[in-house]
Amino acid sequence: MGKVAVITGGAQGIGKGIAERLGNDGFKIVISDMNIDLAQETVKEFKEANIDALAVKGNVSKQDEQFAVVKEAVDKFGSVDVFINNAGIDQVEAVEDITPENLEKIFNVNVFGTVYGTQAAAKQMKKQDNGGKIINACSIAGKTAFELLGAYSATKFAVHGLTQVSAKELAQFNIKVNAYCPGIVGTGMWDRIDEGMVEYKGMKQGEAWQEQVDNIPLQRSQTPEDVASLVSYLASSDADYMTGQAINIDGGIEVH
Ligand SMILES: NC(=O)C1=CN([C@@H]2O[C@H](COP(=O)(O)OP(=O)(O)OC[C@H]3O[C@@H](n4cnc5c(N)ncnc54)[C@H](O)[C@@H]3O)[C@@H](O)[C@H]2O)C=CC1
Ligand SMILES: CC(=O)C(C)=O
Prior knowledge:
about 50% helix; globular; binds butane-2,3-dione; 23BDH; 2 domains; alpha/beta; 7-stranded parallel β-sheet; binds 1,4-dihydronicotinamide adenine dinucleotide; Rossmann fold; 8 helices
């Protein structure tokens, strides 16, 4: 049986790009997403391209649903070898304006979701006793400041920390935990961020996006495929000695 990768939030955007790449790398693919209709459409597309895939409805902020996704993956394909905590949401708000409701909502998805996904994946991988890879969606906003993305940025700093701690705790089981830190990727998320920033700053539609893109040393915005190439490496045996890392893939915006 081939290896199996679960990608949360894989119906569209970066998650879809990762799922497609891992499918082409030979993984059987499980897409878990709240938007089950879109997840099913994506799976149909993949099957037409000879990628063996399954769509499962799952809200990452619900612990029981994350465990149910893993169970469905195992029932269908026999194992979970790679688990990508990709699902995430954005919010555009000055720190002074962040409401308790919004703060709770974004932490529920981006942080609690990553914890629950890690728990569900680790339990199954330990049972399989064959190691595994857990790969988290961080961001360059999980390492540095982005104006008006305070709550979002705080969740990604948390994901960065969780990646490091999970890596230390799970290393004894040969489970590696790493994270990808994209920059400015052209997905639905950035359409919403642009909308929010435009409103805050009195700009025209597309201006906030363009301002960020103009700041990228490699002089183009990022695609899901750019991110997927890093994740493909992290999921592969070539990365078997790497754990606890949060790796920038951002066209050179953040250099250390
Ligand atoms: N777009 C960007 O520029 C960057 C994105 N990222 C991160 O990459 C990840 C993916 O981002 P995008 O593809 O841009 O987002 P997106 O908004 O285009 O797609 C997100 C997907 O996650 C699903 N989703 C949302 N909440 C969910 C939940 N509670 N449970 C299950 N599924 C849920 C949505 O239905 C959607 O299919 C996120 O964690 C994001 O923070 C990191 C850096 C840059
Ligand atoms: C959405 C996001 O993480 C950035 C850096 O734009």
